[in-house]
Design brief:
The protein has no helices and four strands. With 48 residues, it is an all-beta fold. The chain has one domain. It has a four-stranded antiparallel beta sheet with strand order 1-2-4-3, with no helix packed on it. One of its GO terms (cellular component) is extracellular region. Belongs to the beta-defensin family. It is found in: Secreted.
Amino acid sequence: GGTRKCWNFHGKCRHKCFKKEKVYVYCTNNKLCCVKSRYLPKNLPWQI
């Protein structure tokens, strides 16, 4: 059981992310890697 960790153990693999989380990468089991925004790098290319 339990949720798989991703993004350097800051994210969790889920089918849907919470509102305060962002999808940054995908897990190997086709789930989304939900990462809280405070753990994401500041300079993401799509935030220009």
